[in-house]
Amino acid sequence: MRTPQPPNPPRPPGGTPPRGPTPPRGPTPPPRGPTPPRGPTAPKAGPPPRPTAKPVAAKPRAARKLPAWLARARRLLLQPTQEWAAIAPEFASAGPIYMRYIVPMAAIGPLAATIGGIVFGERGSLLTFGTVPINLGTAVQAGVLEYVLNLVGVYGLAIAIELIAGSIGGQKNRVQALKVAAYASTPFWLAGVFALFPRIEPLGMLLGLYSIRLFAQGLPAVMKAPRDKTAAFTLLTSIAAALIVLVITAVITRLVVA
């Protein structure tokens, strides 16, 4: 016998059976804001840029300084009052004054006269205000002799200045007197450059006369001479300097014409 099948459950009307309840979803995310604009794209990494070379500025040339003795000579000519005020208290001795000033300054005239005698075959003479013929050997001998006499003559002038200062109430000091003799003779020594041209050498005496003014300014400052006796002191010193120059010139002239 066949076992009877259970009857199929009845379908609800309308077809597909209803589903179960849908589970609730999570909270809805907030809406997105406007997309920010993108900036410029970063450049790709590459080799570092080369530094720009700065143009090298040309260094200004440093002005050439004059030798100390020539710088002092210039100051004595252009600023005598200030220079004498600096010279007076300087601590010095005869040796440094000679080596630093007298030795180069006293060589200007003899060197110029020697060159002029070699080139032109003649030498100027302050005794005759003319020229005398000279040969090469005599020109060299006269130049050397004049240089030695200049070195000796300035010391002789210093002795005369010291003696005169003591007689009029000034400072009796040999080194101070040598300062005056050396530095006040600057125009005379510089005028020696005219000896390069023997025929115009006597014109150098016009420049050499400026030494009288330097004596007048230097004697009171360096030798502490009384102001009321400055004129007499200057006159006596100038006479002593002129006599020394004449003696040196006479010796040189005799050598040349012998």
Largest sheet: 2 strands, antiparallel
Instruction: Please trace the helix and strand order, writing H or E for each element.
Output: HHHHEEHHHHHH
Tell me the Rg in angstroms. 52 Å
- Average pLDDT level: 82
* Structural class category: mainly alpha
Percent of residues in beta strands? under 5%
Regions with pLDDT < 50 over 5+ consecutive residues? Answer: none
Beta-strand segment tally:
2
Quaternary state reads single chain
SSE layout and pairings?
Elements: H1 68-78, H2 80-87, H3 94-105, H4 108-120, E1 122-125, E2 130-133, H5 136-167, H6 174-184, H7 186-190, H8 204-208, H9 210-223, H10 230-257
Antiparallel strand pairs: 1-2
Helix pairs in contact: 1-2, 2-9, 3-6, 4-5, 5-6, 5-10, 6-9, 9-10
Give me a quick take on this structure:
This protein has 258 residues and is mainly alpha-helical. It is built from 10 helices and 2 strands; from the N terminus they run H-H-H-H-E-E-H-H-H-H-H-H. A hairpin with a 4-residue loop joins strand 1 and strand 2.
Structure description:
With 258 residues, the protein is mainly alpha-helical. It contains ten helices and two strands, in the order ααααββαααααα. The chain has helices at 68-78, 80-87, 94-105, 108-120, 136-167, 174-184, 186-190, 204-208, 210-223, 230-257, and strands spanning 122-125, 130-133. It has a two-stranded antiparallel ribbon. A hairpin with a 4-residue loop joins strand 1 and strand 2. Helix 1 (68-78) packs across helix 2 (80-87) and helix 9 (210-223) crosses helix 10. The protein is flat, with a radius of gyration of 52 Å. The termini are far apart. The relative contact order is 0.12. The model has no long low-confidence stretch (mean pLDDT 82).
